[in-house]
Amino acid sequence: APSDPGLVERARAARERLGEKAFVLGHHYQRDEVIQFADVTGDSFKLAQQAAARPEAEYIVFCGVHFMAESADILTSDAQAVVLPDLAAGCSMADMATAEQVAECWDVLTEAGVADVTVPVSYMNSSADIKAFTGRHGGTICTSSNARRALDWAFAQRAGGSGKVLFLPDQHLGRNTAIRDLGLAPGDCVVYNPHRPNGGLTAEQLRAAKMILWRGHCSVHGRFSLDSVDEVRARIPGVNVLVHPECKHEVVAAADQVGSTEHIIRALDAAPAGSKWAVGTELNLVRRLAKQHPDKEIVFLDRTVCFCSTMNRIDLPHLVWALESLADGKVVNRIEVDKETEHFAKLALERMLALP
Ligand code: 13P
Ligand code: SF4
């Protein structure tokens, strides 16, 4: 639905009152009504870089989800306030790995005698606690646009190919990157289930594995299936299937192209007029791309899959409230990571930002 003109006007007025004091970041999965007020849009990697590159902004208004705002707080100075317009904008994938569960997993790896040769690699889509665990144990963060470089880096930390990676929390991104980009065999990967004793794995299985994948997934991308791909290929002859690496391995294997949201945007920008695309990522982005490219046929990979409900929590009323409060000098919904967590999480994030 088109945005309420009264709210658009209020957002514009508050934005103007704030001027350079505020910087508004918008993830590609945000609603159009919110994206129109973003000073910069991006995938999670670009937004982390952009947050770190704005030391002059007093307020960073993060239109995205909680883990992204936490990362922005970690990468900005104490004097800057990171604001999440709706505190209920979490991420179900990030919630699938808690600090207690991950500490227990490390104990299991220690018992099996493999912790010493294991480097944690954590997807950006994780809480600050998990990022701090990663930093403490010599690991790095990655996003969907640099997962390959992060894994190359992690395996290079242990000489002679003796190393292992604990990848959390998205098993699909971990498996897809290991198999597609690093050429590992499916059998090199095991899945650690935090809800089962010892992760559901024996010490032998842990010793034999190269990739230990946390049993987490994205509730949006995890719903695309091989049937979605088969159905769209039958319905639209000549269609190119383009999916995000948070999709299941069988979906990624059946697709024509795979990449982060920034990759998807670039691929469609570069596509010739008349080409046909079925895109497997969040619906707000796919709809926006279809609108921006009327000369190409762009459809959503599976009509039964929906928006990311937590990304959608940030709507125009919440953004207006946040901007007006800030313009009145009142900081609302500030996301602040405690000092110790921040210290170790920053180590891990900086390792990512320094990846070649
Ligand atoms: P990217 O922004 O890295 O493509 O990740 C997608 C996502 O699911 C963010 O929540
Ligand atoms: Fe989390 Fe998936 Fe939503 Fe991204 S799209 S915020 S990974 S649930």
UniProtKB/TrEMBL annotation:
SUPFAM superfamilies linked to this entry: NadA-like (SSF142754)
UniProt: [4Fe-4S] cluster binding residues: 91, 218, 308
Cofactor note: Binds 1 [4Fe-4S] cluster per subunit.
Catalysis: reaction(s): iminosuccinate + dihydroxyacetone phosphate = quinolinate + phosphate + 2 H2O + H(+)
Principal cellular location given in the protein's record: cytoplasm
Alphabetical UniProt keywords: 4Fe-4S, Cytoplasm, Iron, Iron-sulfur, Metal-binding, Pyridine nucleotide biosynthesis, Transferase
Coiled-coil segments: none
Family annotation (Pfam families): NadA
PANTHER family listed in its UniProt record: QUINOLINATE SYNTHASE, CHLOROPLASTIC, QUINOLINATE SYNTHETASE A
Name under which the protein is recorded: Quinolinate synthase
Organism: Streptomyces synnematoformans
Classification lineage: Bacteria, Bacillati, Actinomycetota, Actinomycetes, Kitasatosporales
Name of encoding gene: nadA
